[in-house]
Amino acid sequence: MNRTCYLCASDQNSTVFVENGIDIVRCSNCGHVFSTYEQEEHYEGYWDDDSSYDLGWWDLAHREIYEDFIGKFLTASSGRILDVGCGLGFFVKRIGERKPGWEAIGYEISEKAVRFAKEKNGLKNVFPGIVQKSGIPRESLDIITLWDVIEHIPKPHSLLEYLHSLLKPGGILFLQTPNFPIQLFKANLKVLLKGMKPDGHYLEAKDHINDYTEKTMGLLAGQTGFKDCRFTILKPIASVSGSGGGKLGTLFKKTYYYATKTIWLLSFKTVNLNNTLFAVLKK
Ligand SMILES: [Zn+2]
After folding, report:
1. Torsion angle, alpha carbons of 237, 241, 242, 248, to 10
2. What CA–CA distance (Å, rounded) separates 209 from 132?
3. DSSP-based helix, strand, coil % in the chain, nearest 5
4. C-alpha angle 7/173/276, rounded to 5°?
5. How far apart are CA 17 and CA 61, in angstroms?
6. Which of 53, 149, 262, 271 has the highest count of CB atoms within 10 angstroms of its CB?
7. Which segments in the chain show pLDDT lower than 50?
8. Are 274 and 65 in contact (CB under 8 A)?
9. How far, in Å, from the CA of 263 to the mean position of ligand 1?
């Protein structure tokens, strides 16, 4: 069990949630929240299970969010972008289709997922292994993205410092991760309504080792050399199942997205009630 905060090295903390015996704690010194579960540094469990390889779902569900990202960030006619933890390669593929002037590369620890990206998605520009061994030249990239990656990494300092070195001056590192205060609220509500189930999903205590807020994401950005950390709100990942539940789910997510975005804009970007954090770190 780990009880030391990786952001400030303090071992003083208090438990904010217990998920099936695993404590999730908040650092008394800096406020960072983390799971006490000890996960290996280069965990690739997610892609071990073939059942998550649902091509149609990935493609449809992520179309709007990727489109929103491309419209906001890939405004230049050409550039170089790296997707770290690219999974089955759908984001890399989308950029190739939408922005042929951009050179996109993906790195993914899971060899199985990369094989899939190459064989089924027809991608040549995705590579297996850890990105630190990629040999990508320093200051050669305009954008680096990590979609749902940062929360899985126990100690991400060295990775972020490495990625910082790959960016051109003024380049951006984009991180998508759950917005912890909202996730905690949802988890507490779930327990209140249905009780704690052994197979239930709350805060993913074994998978999401670090739980970020805008404040602690800002701390991490500063500690790894980035001069600016801002947030944006992108369209949600759609619920796609073909059933009525899928349509209702999508409608709910859309409504929630517009509501949180409106509150965020009206509060001059100080109140972020979206369940996802979209952090934009600038070099
Ligand atoms: Zn701390």
Report:
1. -60
2. 21
3. 40, 25, 40
4. 70
5. 30
6. 149
7. 243
8. no
9. 29
Residue 162 lies in a domain: yes
Per the DSSP assignment, residues forming a β-bridge with 80 are: 103
Helix axes 90-98, 55-73, angle to 10 degrees: 50
Tokens standing for residue 24: 């999730």
CATH number for 89: 3.40.50.150
**Residue 76 neighbours by CB under 8 Å, 6+ apart:** 142
Q: Is 92 domain-assigned?
A: yes
- Structural domain including 39 reads 13-282
Strands 141-147 and 79-84: parallel
7 CA from centroid of ligand 1 (Å):
5
Whole-number CA gyration radius for the chain? 19
- Ligand 1: centre distance to CA 276 (Å): 22
CA of 158 to the centre of ligand 1 (A): 17
Distance 148 CA to ligand 1 centre (A): 22
Strand order in the sheet with 22-27: 13-19, 22-27, 33-35, 210-211
Does residue 4 lie within any of the structural domains?
no
Question: Looking at the DSSP assignment, which residues form a beta bridge with residue 143?
Answer: 81, 172
Look at the chain and report how many structural domains it folds into.
Answer: 1
112, 51 Cβ separation under 8 angstroms: no
- Whether 26 maps to a domain, the answer reads yes
Query: Is the four-CA dihedral 136, 139, 141, 147 of positive or negative sign?
Result: positive
Give residue 246 CA to ligand 1 midpoint distance, Å: 39
* Ligand 1 centre distance from Cα of residue 216 (Å): 9
Residue 6 CA to ligand 1 center (angstroms) comes to 7
| pLDDT value at residue 243 | 47
Across the strands, what pairs with 22? 19
Q: How many CB atoms lie within 10 A of CB 266?
A: 10
